[in-house]
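Handout, page 2. Input:
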Amino acid sequence: MSTADPSVAAAMPEAILRWHAVAEARDVAGLDTLLAEDAVFESPVVHTPQAGKALVTRYLAAAFDVLNNEAFHYPAQWFGETSAVLEFVTEIDGITVNGIDMISWNADGRITHFKVMIRPLKAINLVHEKMRERLMAMGPRPA
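Output:
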């Protein structure tokens, strides 16, 4: 996972710097101190938002395995006071996946909301299939 432009890192909010470190290392345990207890994850293919740290951790861990390969990078990023939009690009099975991570955090710097959007349709279908396989392999959903 790459932040593309080192000068962007200087302007990055702390929560996003921490996100990059956790994601680049694929550090699932690091999500524990990064996510708020009431965090919500919105998937491009799951109708209902996934609420709670355990479910958000589960989805992000699966995404680390499915999306976060050697081709994954963030070519552009935009920052607000408590939110950011990170455009990403990766390749899976010869298909280019382009999307955005929309991330919000609280005053403690913990992520409260993580929404993913993906294009094109061929990429959404592929990511849906791969994420379903990965989530199933993880076993039962946390309560």
